[in-house]
Prior knowledge:
GO terms for molecular function: DNA binding. The chain is built from 11 helices and 5 strands; from the N terminus they run H-E-H-E-H-E-H-E-H-E-H-H-H-H-H-H. By secondary structure, it is of the alpha/beta class. It has 2 domains: about 25-155, Rossmann fold (3-Layer(aba) Sandwich), CATH 3.40.50.2300; about 160-225, Orthogonal Bundle (Arc Repressor Mutant, subunit A). The protein has a 5-stranded parallel beta sheet with strand order 2-1-3-4-5, with helices on both faces.
Amino acid sequence: MKEQVLDCHVMDLHIPRRSPLLLDVAVLHADEVVRRGLETLLRHLDDVGSVHTAASAELLGQTLAHVTPDILLLPASLETPTLRELTGAAREAGTKVLLLLSELDRYHVRRVSGLAVDGFLQESGLSAEALNQAVTDVRRGEIPAPPGLVRELLAVVKAGERPSRGPQLTPREEEALALLVQGMSNKQIARRLGISEHGAKRHVSNVLAKLNCPNRTVAAVVAVQAGIAAAPAP
């Protein structure tokens, strides 16, 4: 009888489900309006738990001494040495970097094309929806990029400002690359190739390594230049 009572108590217990892990995000931007605007938008995203802001690289360094964010938003307008130092430190810490682009001209695109970042956002006209999609993509291991960036990268590549193709790709890697150039995510590539998402991610990682490219966007452009894949439809 005692055992039956205990069983009833167990059945009555409410065991809460574990909630999804929320993201810690850090933002660096000297413009107070932009910085506070990004903070407000980020705090309203379902996936974001906390937001840390800094007006300078020095202040950001003080924050990062105590916090390791999941995602770091950096403006592309920072001086190149500072950008490389911050993106390098983020990579070592396991933090993903979203780069905020204020300009999409040839000069600015060339500056950021070699950075090992995890996504790009265009500051002009940035909406809550676009920011949410970028955060979601980065969390899934995708690299968001505005269409204008891809067009300018193509122009940079055609001008001979990127290295030519690397070692030979396997047929499967070429298939994955062709879909990557069309802007597909790892999940979409997996579906098209009839493989697991993990398998698609492995093929994409191999492509980036063989083409010596820091991210998917640059890999797509280099592939078009080398004739490995057809350019995406306008």
